[in-house]
Amino acid sequence: MFLGQYQHNLDNKGRLTIPSRYRDLLEQGAYVTRGFDSNLMVWTVTAFETISKSVNRMSITDPNSRLLRRLIYASGEKVDVDRVGRILIPQFLRQSAGLDGEVVIVGVGDYFEIWSPPTWSQQLADLQDGDANIRRFEAFDLATG
Question: What pTM does this model have?
Answer without folding.
Answer: 0.92
